[in-house]
Amino acid sequence: MTIEALEGSESILKKIGNTPMVKLDSLSNNDAEFYAKLESFNPFGSVKDRAAFWMVKLAEENGLIKRGHSVIIEPTSGNTGIALAGIAKLLGYKVEIVIPEKASDETKKIIESLGATLYQTSDDLCPKVGAGTDQSIALAKSIASARPDKYYSPNQYSNEANFMGHYKGTGPEIWQQTNGKVTHFFSGVGTGGTITGIGAFLKEKNPDIKIIAVQPQQNHLIQGLRNFEESAKPDLFLKREQVVDDWLTITNDEAFAAVKEIFIKDSLLVSPSSAAVYVAMKKYGIQKGCAVGIFADDGKKFKSLYSQQKIFTEEEFDRAIGEAKHLSHDSFY
Ligand SMILES: Cc1ncc(COP(=O)(O)O)c(C=O)c1O
After folding, report:
1. What separation in Å is there between the alpha carbon of 187 and the centre of ligand 1?
2. Which of 50-54, 94-98, 134-138 has the lowest mean pLDDT?
3. Dihedral-angle region of residue 45 (phi above 0 means left; psi in -120 to 50 means alpha; beta otherwise)
4. Atom of ligand 1 at shortest distance to CA of 48?
5. Which of 40, 47, 174, 243 for mutating ligand 1's site (highest number of atoms within 8 Å of CB)?
6. Whose CA is closest to 139, among 175, 107, 173, 97?
7. What is the pTM assigned to this prediction?
8. In the chain, what are the helix, strand and coil shares in percent, each to the nearest 5?
9. How far apart (Å, rounded) are the C-alpha atoms in residues 107 and 69?
């Protein structure tokens, strides 16, 4: 499958990547500039469109899946499920997603509305890898291994295509969008595809660029991110973890307070994980340079969570959707 050859409804997939970067006026000054890379502008709404597309593309190229026949099954805390459901359906695959029941209701509804079958487990918000209690990963594996002729699990936690999507796409985009001026890069870590792919590319361009990993507190409510005291590191992350220079841990309270702060100061309606990245960018103490943070998705699917956390009432949230700048209304879900 080549991107250029995609036609008809499949051409939606050409819109993956090349996401905008916006300046965060609330943090920037004459000496230091701060930018958010808005991954919500991918067609299925998050940074995970990139990994999902690359994993399906490489599986097809390697003859591991066949359109109209194969079923793609994957454990995910949300965004990979949305991306795989959307992308694979366009290409003619059935999709089954195993998700922790704590993922937001909106996330689950989006996955189902894209035609995927949803299995829920009682895992923590982000399925744990390694030994332990990760029912989502175990369930996906057991379904796939019972019918290897039909089922394929991309396994984003070790699939090199997940890394490549960022090494070949997001990393070069950030380099170009900052004209090579980027000095600091911030990202949360789920599988590690985003931070290692972008980090490896940027370090090749300029080894002095600092790569900062953002992790949530233990027992967190930050969909998509992982705390490494609670969970082992995924294989994909372990392979290149040396690209990370520093770690910052952000609490639930800090992230949720920042959701409101970013809306008031920058007019952006962001997801909890993007708010965690923002807090890390603010706390790191950059006096001079150009910092870029991955805002992995936007706030649209967190109405119920934000109302529960008393960030926005439902009425305030609806108003915020209308008032927010840089909110993509072109998502295909
Ligand atoms: C919501 C969300 N999903 C996924 C990711 C990145 O995931 P991965 O490490 O799997 O590339 C992030 C990181 O910024 C995130 O905030």
Report:
1. 8
2. 134-138
3. left
4. 4
5. 47
6. 97
7. 0.94
8. 45, 15, 40
9. 26
pLDDT in tens, 149-163: 999 999 999 999 999
Query: Could you tell me the two tokens for 2?
Result: 């080549």
Ramachandran quadrant class, 192 (left: phi over 0; alpha: psi -120 to 50; beta: rest)? left
Which residue has the least CA distance to atom 7 on ligand 1? 190
CB-based pocket (< 6 A), ligand 1: 47-48, 79, 187-194, 223-225, 271, 273, 294, 296-297
Domain range 49-152, CATH architecture: 3-Layer(aba) Sandwich (3.40)
Atom of ligand 1 nearest to the CA of 192: 9
What CATH number labels 3-42+166-316? 3.40.50.1100
Could you tell me which of 137, 81, 148, 131 has the C-alpha nearest to residue 111?
81
| Interval between CA 30 and ligand 1 midpoint (Å) | 30
Q: Please tell me what DSSP assigns to residue 3.
A: G
Q: Residue 149 C-alpha to ligand 1 middle, in angstroms?
A: 30
pLDDT digits (tens, 9 = 90+) for 122-180: 866 666 665 544 778 888 888 999 999 999 999 999 999 999 999 999 999 999 999 99
CATH 3.40.50.1100 boundaries in the chain: 3-42+166-316, 49-152
